[in-house]
Amino acid sequence: MSTPSHRFITTAEALKEEHKGRTNHWLCHAEVCGAKDIQICRATLPAGEGHGFHTHPELEEVIYVLEGEVEQWVEREHRVLKPGEVAHIPKGVVHATFNPTAKDAVILAVLSPAVFTGPFAVDVSDEEPWRSLRG
Amino acid sequence: MSTPSHRFITTAEALKEEHKGRTNHWLCHAEVCGAKDIQICRATLPAGEGHGFHTHPELEEVIYVLEGEVEQWVEREHRVLKPGEVAHIPKGVVHATFNPTAKDAVILAVLSPAVFTGPFAVDVSDEEPWRSLRG
Known about the structure:
2 copies of one chain form a homodimer.
Chain A: E1 8-9, E2 15-19, E3 22-28, H1 30-33, E4 39-45, E5 50-55, E6 60-67, E7 70-74, E8 77-81, E9 86-89, E10 95-98, E11 105-112, E12 122-123
Antiparallel strand pairs in A: 2-3, 3-4, 4-11, 5-10, 5-12, 6-9, 6-11, 7-8, 7-10
């Protein structure tokens, strides 16, 4: 496989992914720019939607809020994060991001590495204690 | 050394660094949250200032523009990047970021890994061809 050589990536070059009626943009990804260690996805969470409880068994993650507010969970702790605020999620740690507001929220999800072998994510939203955590 | 346990990081918890009259914020860093693979610094470049040509011998980097515009170089190529646009800089590759506009530009610098042994950066701005590249 030849390595893509893009060094500058705009929305046009990003890898697109539809999620709950919005388009997420992978601005840094192995398939976009040959990244080895860093993945960056700009994701929009519509009002009332979110990314349920899950883990990334092989990836560390940072969530950076760009617009709006999110209810961010890391294990049993949660916080409302505003633009410019961050959550750090060590490899394999259960986490979730919800948008409890009335308007879209936009986040950057930064993940490392960009090349890995196992599943990207494991959904644990149907398992306790995560299923009952938001009450 | 005990590992810091902060999972949620705001400007208040970030590691601060003064640079050319502005405060940069390390929102994800080994010393802030025990990060192993991801570092994130929100950096402000005043009008006419920048980060001259350098390498990170052990780190891959992504620049994500938050506000304003920057003149981003990756080796001999450059592009004006606007908010939401990205540059990907493989490990060891020479790069630079300048703000040629009349107002502050704000970028996120994402680097991986967060734990490494050698120097963070090597300045090559006095060496050719980098010294003469901007003409």
